[in-house]
Amino acid sequence: MEFGFIRVAAATPRVKVADVDANVEEICRMAEIAENEQVSILAFPELSVTGYSCGDLFAQELLVSRAEEGVKRLKTFSRGKSLTLVVGVPVRVRGSLYNCAAVIQNGSLKGIVPKIYLPTYNEFYESRWFSSGCDFLSDTLNAYGRIEDNAKDCSSPAAGAEISYAGHKVNVYPNMLFNVGRATFAIEICEDLWTPIPPSSHHTLAGAQIIVNLSASNEVLMKHQYRKQLVSQQSARTISAYVYSSCGYGESTQDVVYAGSSLIYENGSLMAENKRFSLESGMICADIDIDKLSVLRQKESTFHSVAPDGTGDGLDAQRYFAVASGDGAATDFEKCLKRHIDPHPFVPGNAAERDERCREITDIQVIGLATRLAHIHSQTAVIGISGGLDSTLALIVTVLAFDKLGWDRKRIIGITMPGLGTTTRTHSNASDLMAALGVTSLEIPIGKAVAQHFFDIGQNPEVQDVTYENSQARERTQILMDVANKENGIVVGTGDLSELALGWATYNGDHMSMYAVNASIPKTLVRYLVGWAAENHFESDVADRKRSVREILMDIIDTPVSPELKPADSEGNITQKTEDLVGPYELHDFFLYYIFRFGARPSKVYFLARKAFEGVYDDATILKWLNTFIRRFFAQQFKRSCLPDCPKVGSVSLSPRGDWRMPSDAWRTIFLNDLPER
């Protein structure tokens, strides 16, 4: 299966300036390699058939005619191949010369796209030789652009041109969309990218998911970083993949140097980059997730917003020609996916990036809580402290919020409520942490109250069922709410995003609070946030206590995740481990990320998880817990429909007032049926 992926490549061939035969031969050689790599779209640099730096040789009829013959050879070469070639070539139309990209697939010339913006500044002189592709633009405008499939009626100068070129009738037009399988790509050429409103902005509004840029960008100090920023930002702004190929070794260095920069970005993220300044031809490949891009565009409603009057630079909402360009390569992504799938998408692998993310998230949590406390004129916060990760993070955030407001930490009331399953380790960590942070600490055992409740409702205390467990959670929540009322404060919630997705919370128990500071933070990230706080806020906090804040936090990080609603073993160890019951959180967070960030279907999520966790979990284990995730998610929506307020910190949130609005009665059938049987 292709799973919504398409393989693209950017090539940087060695060129010989004005030697068309040699250049075509090298293009064919590299195309053979790409064909063997199951590439569907292969981009070459600007004017790659002739070389970019020909100068006044572009005025020579011989060079231009030989370039046409070169394209004819490439047409012949492409027969029987699934690869779509995009090469740079000078093309003469109605007596003017244009800097163009030619699209070739399976023996056919699919279209010719002329460059719009011609640089004539500093070292560039393009208008000396070429005319602008604006010559072919239509004056007809509408909201989004009119698309004509395989258009041929383009004889009017205002609506492109149909010419005979390389033995083929072909359209010459800037605004062309090329369909390869399920993917659609469009072209811009070098300087087009560097303008205030690049043509790719309009191409993507018309439906292009991939932008191919043929460039001849020379090197000067710091230009490369700027170039990468442009490509990254345009890819992000247009929610597209961007395939950038620039000329390299062999171009004339009479005045400037070309280093052969090739880049592939997807929605702002770098997918592949070559090594510049090579003396040899080179190629980079990447697998682009077309489905992901489509979902992101659908979710971001402003993507398709354009001025109704079509105002702009003359390119707004122009007519587009859509051209079918084959099915693409039958790439076996199951066996050779050229794409790193991060098993922990919420947690950056780079330490510096992870540190920055933890800092940003903590700041969002802190300012959110501080704003809420100040707004309701409450200087008291009540938190249930279990000695686990979630309540620890909530306490840290509350302490930092009070410090930011300049309030006394003693107005933070931490309550530990030992129950039927509380262990010595978690109880000690909870008590010691509250003391070390200088908050008000209360201990209110719930054993007697729960026993009385069991008696009142006729629950056998020997039966450790869901009533046995949830009664404890609800008793604790009642205590927190009543203490908050008594002290004119609010209850700060502790539950995290992963628990909300799985419904791993007691309805009207730990599910409820007055402000849920962790509700959009996945479990895999909670541990890092606590560790970051230990290193950055409490690393030197020792004083005269038995254990420092940092020591306590590090022990909490090492404690198994558990609700502690069932008794400990004979040695006082935790017996009820959450991940033994609902599955590994790293798997669930992976499922959560791809299903709700990108709308990926379960079969694709299963495929990606197998790639990401290869050698960690076998296929059966991944499939088991993915089934569990889907079943629990659909069954537990009613809990998420009445969540308390919470600060959104990342791109995935399940708040019923924000990112996720779903009926509690939706069926899971089609989602489970999309998976293979276990």
CATH architecture of the largest domain: 4-Layer Sandwich
Quick one: CATH class of the largest domain? Alpha Beta
What strand line-up does the widest sheet have? 6-16-9-10-11-12-13-14
Shape: elongated
How much of the polypeptide forms β-strand, as a percent range?
15-25%
Q: How many strands, which pairing sense, and closed or not: the largest β-sheet? A: 8 strands, mixed
The separation of the N and C termini measures 19 Å
Number of domains: 2
How many helices? 20
Helix/strand-derived class?
A: alpha/beta
Radius of gyration: 31 Å
Q: Give the averaged pLDDT, no decimals.
A: 91
Question: What's a quick, concise take on this entry?
Answer:
This protein has 678 residues and is of the alpha/beta class. The strands form 4 sheets. Strands 6-16-9-10-11-12-13-14 form an 8-stranded mixed β-sheet, covered by helices on one side. The protein is elongated.
